[in-house]
Amino acid sequence: MATASQALQKVEILLTKEVPPFPAIALKALNLMAGTDTSLFQLCNLIRPDAAFSAEVLRIANSPLVAFPKNITNMLQASMVLGFRRLKSVVITVGLRAYLEGPFTPLLHSCWRHSLACGMIAERIAAANSRDKDFAYTAGILHDIGRIVMAKASPDFYDHAAVQGVDHPREMLSAERARYGIDHCQAGAILARSWQLPDAFMEIISHHHDGKPKTGDEAAPIGAISCLLADTLDFGIVRCRKALSYTDILNSVPNLRGVPADSDELASGIAREIQLIESA
Q1: Are 12 and 190 spatial neighbours (Cβ–Cβ below 8 Å)?
Q2: How far is Cα of residue 224 from the mean position of the Cα atoms in its chain?
Q3: Residues of the chain with pLDDT under 50
Q4: Is this structure's pTM higher than 0.85?
Q5: Which pLDDT value is given to residue 144?
Q6: How many domains does the chain have?
Q7: CB burial readout 131-141, b (16+ within 10 A) else e
């Protein structure tokens, strides 16, 4: 009889060998960003040779999300208009969209919206609390990559879970382990190592469902908070019947800045941004 470690090893082999890789250009961009001497010109040169990726970036650069008064016609112009920080965020967003290529089912659409919402919320919190907002946005976009892979592989399982709901996110992790021998946090960590993502993203990918947020803005795990907020603002994938309310989440991190007291204000702002990206 196989041990738990042997079962996990089999799943790891399956994930690293049979799951399609994250778009190579986005992975290169992620690792390029991890360096301290990356220039806007380097990032532009990385994107420009890929016609499909460049076209996606140009679509977003010309969307109301950027609202530049003139038409942007090439990557160098897009890079100058967007700037280094904004271009990084666009590259990761386009990378996730490319990874979801194929039939964009309601389930995968929920995964897409959840990831975008987490990235946007994380960016707001980080910016208001003097943290790296670009890292926070990217980590928010990537935090659920393990679940996206599972949802693509077994849509019926997730469709059923989405209809039935769970009492708590950790109940879904248990269901995943019962079904696959691994949960989506562990799967995401395996994929992150396989794709050689910078180590800085591993913590959020691996631990975004680990308990309640800690108190104090310096210790607060932005990824976990963003995931909880996205769920309670109706950007979730599987409905949690006993999830913390919006007010409960804010009260659990009393020094948190960047999140309005009115949940409708945040939800409508996130929805508008997602709509702009989707319509680009």
Answers
A1: yes
A2: 12
A3: 1-2, 36, 212-220
A4: no
A5: 92
A6: 1
A7: bebbbbbbbbb
